[in-house]
Amino acid sequence: MDNRLLEDIRQSGFIHRPLPLYAERSLESKQQNEPVLGKLELALFEDDGKWLHQGAQSMSIVPGQHLAISSPTRMPRWPEGSPEDGDYVNFGSAWLIRRFDHDNWEGYNRITVEVYPDFPGVPNAYVALKFKNEGEVAVPDIYNREGYHGVNVKNGQWNTIHLDIQQLPRDGITELAIGYYLNGKDRATGDRMELRLRSARLERVEGHEISKGWMPKAGDLIYSHSGYNAEGTKTAFAASGLTGEASPESFSLKREGTDEIAFEGRVMPLATSLGTYLSMDFTAFSESGRYYLQAGGLRSEGFAIGSASEVWHASVWKALNFIFCERCGYPVPGIHGSCHADIVAKHEGLILSFNGGWHDAGDVSQQLIQTAEVAFALFELAEKVEAFDRDLCLRLIEEGEWGLDFLLKTRFGDGYRATSAGITRWTDGLIGNMDDAEARVHNQAYENFYCAGIEAYIHERLKKVNPALSERLLQFAKEDFEFAMTEYGRIGFDQKPIFWEHTYQTSESLYMATASWAASMLYKATQERQYASRAVEFMSYVLDCQELTGITLDSGKTLAGFFYRNPDKRVVQHFNHQAREHLYLMALASIRDTQPEHADAESWLASIRSYGDYLKILAAYTEPYPMIASGVYHESEHLDERSFGHQHLLTDERAKADYGEQLRRGEKLNDSYYLRRFPVWFSFRGNNAILLSTGKAASVAAACLNDRELKGIAEGQLQWIAGMNPFAQSLMHGEGYRYAQQYSVLCGEMTGEIPVGIQTWGNDDEPYWPQFNNATYKEVWTGNAGKWLSIVADLYESENGKLG
Q1: Interior CA angle at 801 toward 619 and 790, to 5°?
Q2: Do the Cβ atoms of 148 and 139 come closer than 8 Å?
Q3: How many CA atoms lie within 13 A of 515 on its CB side?
Q4: How far apart are CA 129 and CA 127, in angstroms?
Q5: How confident is the model over 440-493, as pLDDT tens digits?
Q6: Which residue, 117, 156, 529, 722, is most buried by CB atoms nearer than 10 A?
Q7: Using an 8 Å Cβ cutoff, are 704 and 798 in contact?
Q8: pLDDT over 70 at 244, yes or no
Q9: How confident is the model at residue 209 (pLDDT cuts 50, 70, 90)?
């Protein structure tokens, strides 16, 4: 880690205050210096009557200076059409609106506006832009994702917002809106809000970004901004046929700071299914240090080569910072006060305040399972760093205990748990008035199985540092497992999943994998044979859902190893938003670890090996990028009403028609199966959670099989997020370079935040990553930080003698 980050960590009290934002490396900072080749002012004052207001109580005009809209911070009622209980709603929005007569903006590729938010006491000033196009492609789209852009701005001063609109359909623009959301009141928030607009203009700039496709922009070098493992594959690449100059024939790896050449190699053409690239391979070089690449006019920024800790340790501290900043119920300095005490859960005459743990996303909603998974990852990594970074170890444990407290707080002790709350607003902390929200309360077997496994796992990690809590935690784990067994015995798989909860997509096979893993965790902690038997029983079901015979491809090869949703093997297990693919491998690894002498131990190992082979095949479809492909799909999966409805939220009949079109834009494998590089998805898009979950599955399999290739696939998912993608952007804010603002409406930008992930345009199967900042793809997601830490934990362990 560099000295600046070390000093920032110390000054934050080892992440007891947020780390600073490193704005100079951001995409937005680069936009400030782009030459403007042409512009068109959108007149504010001359065209009287063209600017309107909507939602705001008033609009004012100061001629020659600015337009302004203002409103209360909080309304006395929910917006029309909202749920009566205020579930997942704010208090509306306020907009300045300019109408156009199907104007064609295709001659411009950027819009720039200057705004002044006067939002007294608002934790994060957030301004939004909306576009309506009624040309060849309608904007917004049917899911209301396209054409919306949100920006975190500085309160009480003028802000210049640049937005790249190169990819926005804009041949028939009819409306532009600039405004803000009424996101409720924290303790310090004022009563009124005002937004001023002093200029809006269209611009044509030279340096617009690539936002769609696999081929990077000419002049961009694609590499891992964090770096490369000294013993692993090390490559970088660029688009072939560089604009304005001949392609370089050689490249140099130079030491950062001295410019000394450490390694030289040939730039080679690389033909792949995604296109032809200029490739630079420096795998043969393995000396630890900080370096940069240079090839003709191409030059990278600095990155590390070395051990996993030398490459990823800085990102660990940053991810931890993001998690800390998302604490709920805790005053996070500069972000919010001790929030959401008036979000309550009720059961059998009891009431608990459903705050604590971590907000699950940019909308500050709360999900029990998301917090539980992040707590698990924190304790998992703490164990792996104890030997070489005691400060980090203790800080990870402390943060993990914050999440664990919420995990236990939400137990009612009879099988019922408070499980989630849709919030998307600040509340005043006073219980009994209209801005409160009520958490969902359920006795769900799946949640109790999963929480029991996490509790049993953490019990082992707390024995030394908190023995009293460790002892009670094991008792709670045993109780929760029994609650789950009782409910599962009564209802089985027919227990209705809960809409909006992050376990809604759970299939029967994933359910059984989770239950088997939980039983193994309890067996490891107690050595009671009943748990060993349950683990085997549940695993038997899981293996009945795995494709072990294989499907024959048109190429003549056989593809096996993947899982189906249930034993009838009609619907392949997919993830398109939430993702828990790693639980299959964690269950297999845990049962083999705890019952190595069992008669089925070799079949468990064979299942791991088959899955590992499957991942290697998937990885080949996205070369030269390390992003692993989504997986295989059967052509008729959309006909299974139950599973399709559970996998895809907020869709209608159009989704079933689009399903086939999305498959056809993937890779045809045989008469019935297709491969998609990105998932089949509709309203909810973004694949970071999917990649990180699959990466965790790869790292678990790598440890079981002593397989370096699988370890490389696992690490590759981190590299994709850390800049090794077609847009040359790091998707972790503050790590690497050219990271952009993300959708963090209420908390603002946070160093270490990771969004839901890169999406696709329509039914395409290629990456789409516009600057437009909107949910779900750009929304920051705490669970992704947890998955990041979980993969890093395995990478650290592999260097402690576990992987040969």
Answers
A1: 50
A2: no
A3: 30
A4: 7
A5: 999 999 999 999 999 999 999 999 999 999 999 999 999 999 999 999 999 998
A6: 722
A7: no
A8: no
A9: confident
Are the beta carbons of 659 and 638 closer than 8 angstroms? yes
Burial zone of 21 (CB within 10 Å; 0-12 exposed, 13-18 middle, 19+ buried): middle
Average pLDDT, integer, range 581-588: 98
The residues, ordered by sequence, that sit 6+ positions from 634 with a Cβ below 8 Å of its Cβ are 570, 571, 572, 672, 673
**CATH number of the structural domain 310-802:** 1.50.10.10
* CA 727 and chain centroid, separation: 17
Residues 6 or more apart whose Cβ sits within 8 Å of residue 234: 228, 281, 282, 283, 285, 305
Q: Using one digit for the tens of pLDDT, what is the confidence trace for 501-520?
A: 888 889 999 999 999 999 99
- What string of DSSP letters covers 245-286? SPPPSEEEEEETTT--EEEEEEEEEEEETTEEEEEEE-TT--
- Name the token pair of 38: 């042409």
CA nearest neighbour of 521 among 437, 431, 449: 449
Yes or no: say if 621 and 627 are a contact pair by the CB < 8 Å rule. no
**Residue type for 79, please?**
P
Element (H, E) at 482: helix 467-491
**Gap between the Cα atoms of 719 and 45, Å rounded:** 49
Residues 6 or more apart whose Cβ sits within 8 Å of residue 799: 307, 308, 309
Distance CA 431, CA 687 (A): 38
> How many other CB atoms are found less than 10 A from the CB of residue 441?
20
SS3 assignment, position 478 = helix
Share of the chain above pLDDT 70, in %: 99
- What is the chain's Cα-based Rg? 26
The CB-side HSE value for 617 (13 A sphere, CA atoms) comes to 21
Q: Strands 343-347, 437-438: parallel, antiparallel or unpaired by DSSP? A: parallel
Q: Do residues 357 and 402 lie in contact, with contact meaning Cβ atoms separated by under 8 Å?
A: yes
The residue ranges of every structural domain in the chain are: 23-205, 231-306, 310-802
pLDDT tens string 722-750: 999 999 999 999 999 999 999 999 999 99
Q: Give the Cα separation of 59 and 144 in Å (integer).
A: 26
Q: Please state, in angstroms and rounded to a whole number, the distance separating the CA atoms of residues 121 and 799.
A: 48
CATH 2.60.120.260 matches 23-205: yes
Pairing label, strands 173-181, 631-634: unpaired
> Amino acid letter at 109?
N
Q: Are strands 93-103 and 51-54 parallel, antiparallel or unpaired?
A: antiparallel
Mean pLDDT of 715-722: 98
Which residues, 6+ apart, have CB-to-CB distance to 121 below 8 Å? 186, 188, 189, 190
Q: Does domain 231-306 have CATH number 1.25.40.10?
A: no
User: Does the pLDDT at position 803 exceed 60?
Assistant: no
Cα(first)–Cα(last) distance of the chain, in Å? 26
Residues 107 and 109: their CA atoms lie apart, in Å, by 7
